[in-house]
Write a structure and sequence with these properties.
Arc Repressor Mutant, subunit A; about 550 residues; 6 strands; 5 domains; single chain; mainly alpha; two-stranded antiparallel ribbon
C-alpha cells in the first residue's frame, strides 16, 4: 500500500501505536473503521475532525489543515493496519458485528486468498483475531460491504477469472503430479510452470493444488509442505542462511515455499533476539518525542573530537601492549552525558519493540529495526569503554605494588570498567570517571587481598621457584575478564571478515547471538561440516585476524 501521503496522519498513527494502551487502541481501531466507511473521496476533511473521530480528542495542532478524501482514505487504511499490528488479537466471537475470515471471503467471493490480500490496497483492511485458538485475519461486515459497493466490477472480474472447470482442475492436478514426481521444484515453482502453459494465474493454479491436497491428504501432491518443522531443523535452516545459502535453495532442500522459509528465518531470529539480555538505565526524557532528535543527534564537539583523534600519539614510555589505549581522545562531561543517554535510549527503543514482538508472526522490518538499535547501542558502549581504558591503567599502576602481575590486575580492572559503563546512571549528573574510579578501586580492594591470601597458602620455602613456575590455576573472575576483553577487541576486527568467517568466530567466542562459546563439534553441526573442517577454518581465520590486527595496530589477545 506504500507510505502515508499526509505527514500529520503518519505522526498521529505513530503516537497512538507508541503511547496509547492496548485497550485504547482497540477503541481507536473501531472508530477508524467507522470513519473509513463514511469517507467521500471527492470531499475534504479537517484534520482536527479526523483526530476527534478516532481518538475522542480534538488537538490544537494543524488547525487549518484540510485533507482530501482520496488521501484520507489511503492513509486511514494504513492507520488501521498500524494499529491492528500493534494490538493483541481479540477473540472473533467478541466482535459485535458479523465477521468474515480470509477463507470464508475466498469461498463466498470465489477468488483466491492472495487476491483478497491484494485488495487491501483498495481499502479492504482486515483485523487480527483469534479463531479456534489460532491467529487469523478477518474482515468486518461493514468494511466488506463498503468495499464491495465501491469495487463491484473488480470483484466480479476476479471471480470470473478464478472460476475453473472440473476438466481444467483435473488437468492441473495431472500436470502437478507429474512435475512433483520428477522433483521439478516447490509448489510455487510447479504452479508457475503450469500457469504459463495453461494461460492462468499462478495463484489460481496454486490454490487449486492446495485445495486438492486438503481434500485428498492420502494422495497429496505436495504433502511435505503441510507439515511443521521442529526447532532443531529451524535452527539448522537459519544457520545455513547465515552462511549465505539462498532462500530458493533452502526452499528446495526443506520442501518449503519461499514465504514459509522467510517466516521460519524471522521466527528463529526473533527468538534469538528475545533471548538476549537487554538492560538499560531509564530516563524520563525517553518518553518525550520532542527530545528524540537531540538524543540521537551528533555528539557535542564532534568535529573537534575527530580532529584530535587524528593527532593522537602514544607516549614513549607506554608498553606495546597498551598502545591501542591511546587511539581515542578522552571525553568531556558533556560528551559522556550525550553518549550514555543515546546508548540507553537506543536500548529503550529496542526494549519497546521487543515487548510487542511475537516470533510466530515476526516481520523482517521489525527484526532489522531491533537488531540495528542494539548494534548501535553496542557500538556506543564499546566506544565508551575504549575511551576510558586509560583510567584503568592509571588506577592499576597505583595498586601495582600490592600484586605481582600487573596485567592480571589490568584485566580485572577492565571487567569493572565494562560493568560500570552498563550500570552508570547518567541522569544524576556525575562525571563517569568518578563513578568508574570508585567501582574499579572497590573491586581492587576486594580482589588484591584475595590474591595475596591465595599465594600465602602456597609458601613452601622455595618461593623463588614458585614465582618462576607457570600459574595454571583457574580463577573465574580472571577468565570472565579475559573473555570480555577478547569480545570487545574481536568485535572491532569482525568487519574485515567474510560473513561465514564472522559467524564461526562469533560461535567460537560466544559473541552476539551466542551466550557462550561453542565447541568445534557444535559449530560443525550448526554449519553442516565436520569438526576437523571447523578446526582448519578456525586456524585460518585466527591467522587472518592476527595479520589484520597487526596492520591496524589493534592488540588481539
Amino acid at each position: 500500500m506504500g507510505d502515508f501521503k499526509n505527514p500529520a496522519l503518519e505522526q498521529l498513527a505513530d503516537q497512538q501505536v507508541r503511547f496509547a494502551p492496548p485497550s485504547r487502541r482497540q477503541l481507536q481501531l473501531s472508530n477508524a473503521e467507522k470513519l473509513l466507511a463514511e469517507i467521500d473521496p471527492s470531499k475534504e476533511f479537517p484534520y482536527q475532525y479526523i483526530c476527534y473521530r478516532i481518538t475522542d480528542y480534538r488537538p490544537d495542532s494543524y488547525p487549518d489543515l484540510m485533507i482530501p478524501g482520496e488521501v484520507l482514505e489511503h492513509d486511514l487504511c494504513l492507520f488501521i493496519e498500524a494499529l491492528a499490528r500493534s494490538t493483541p488479537p481479540i477473540p472473533l466471537e467478541s466482535i459485535p458485528e458479523p465477521v468474515w475470515t480470509l477463507d470464508q471471503m475466498s469461498k463466498r467471493l470465489n477468488v483466491s486468498t492472495k487476491t483478497i490480500s491484494r485488495w487491501r490496497e483498495r481499502g479492504l483492511v482486515g483485523r487480527r483475531v483469534l479463531f479456534k485458538g489460532r491467529r487469523q485475519v478477518a474482515y468486518l461486515q461493514s468494511v466488506v460491504d463498503r468495499f464491495l459497493a465501491a469495487n463491484r466490477d473488480r470483484v466480479e472480474r476476479s471471480s470470473r477469472f478464478s472460476q475453473l472447470t472440473s476438466e481444467e482442475k483435473q488437468e492441473i492436478c495431472r500436470r502437478a503430479r507429474r512435475l512433483a514426481r520428477a522433483g521439478t521444484g516447490t509448489l510455487t515453482e510447479v504452479s508457475r510452470r503450469i500457469a504459463r502453459r495453461l494461460g492462468r494465474s499462478t495463484e489460481a493454479i496454486r490454490y487449486t493444488i492446495k485445495n486438492y491436497d486438503q481434500e485428498h491428504p492420502e494422495h497429496a501432491l505436495f504433502p511435505s509442505v503441510a507439515g511443521t518443522l521442529d526447532d532443531q531443523t529451524k535452527q539448522t535452516l537459519y544457520s545455513l542462511h547465515r552462511r549465505g545459502i539462498s532462500v530458493d535453495s533452502l526452499a528446495k532442500r526443506f520442501h518449503r515455499t519461499r514465504a514459509s522459509v522467510y517466516r521460519i528465518l524471522n521466527e528463529v531470529k526473533a527468538r534469538r533476539l528475545l533471548g538476549q539480555p537487554l538492560e538499560y538505565i531509564y530516563h524520563p526524557s525517553f518518553d518525550d518525542p520532542a527530545m528524540e532528535a537531540g538524543i540521537l543527534g551528533p555528539m557535542p564537539g564532534l568535529a573537534e573530537y575527530e580532529v584530535q583523534r587524528g593527532h593522537m600519539r602514544v607516549p614513549k614510555d607506554a608498553p606495546p601492549e597498551l598502545a591501542s589505549l591511546y587511539e581515542l581522545p578522552l571525553l568531556n562531561k558533556e560528551q559522556e552525558q550525550h553518549l550514555f543517554r543515546k546508548m540507553n535510549y537506543l536500548k529503550h527503543k529496542a526494549r519497546k519493540l521487543r515487548a510487542n514482538l511475537d516470533p510466530a508472526v515476526a516481520r523482517s522490518h521489525d527484526l532489522n529495526a531491533i537488531e540495528d538499535l542494539q548494534n548501535q547501542a553496542t557500538a556506543i558502549k564499546d566506544h565508551l569503554i575504549s575511551c576510558n581504558m586509560r583510567l584503568v591503567v592509571a588506577i592499576a599502576k597505583r595498586h601495582a605494588a600490592q600484586t605481582d602481575n600487573f596485567f592480571e590486575l589490568l584485566s580485572d580492572g577492565n571487567m569493572s570498567l565494562i560493568r560500570a559503563v552498563e550500570k552508570f546512571d547518567f541522569g544524576r549528573g556525575n562525571k563517569f570517571s568518578t563513578y568508574a574510579s570508585w567501582a574499579i578501586m572497590k573491586n581492587f580492594a576486594r580482589s588484591i587481598p584475595e590474591e595475596n591470601r591465595r599465594r600465602e597458602r602456597y609458601v613452601t620455602g622455595h618461593e623463588e621457584m614458585f614465582e618462576i613456575a607457570p600459574d595454571s590455576r583457574s580463577d573465574e573472575q580472571e577468565i570472565l575478564a579475559a573473555v570480555e576483553q577478547t569480545k570487545v577487541r574481536v568485535n572491532r576486527l569482525l568487519q574485515y571478515l567474510e560473513p561465514r568467517e564472522r559467524e564461526i568466530i562469533r560461535m567460537r567466542a560466544g559473541l552476539d547471538n551466542y551466550n557462550e562459546g561453542m565447541t568445534l563439534e557444535e559449530i560443525g553441526h550448526q554449519l553442516g561440516i565436520t569438526k576437523e573442517r571447523v578446526r582448519q577454518l578456525n586456524v585460518r581465520i585466527m591467522a587472518k585476524l592476527r595479520n589484520i590486527a597487526k596492520e591496524q595496530k589493534i592488540d588481539l589477545p
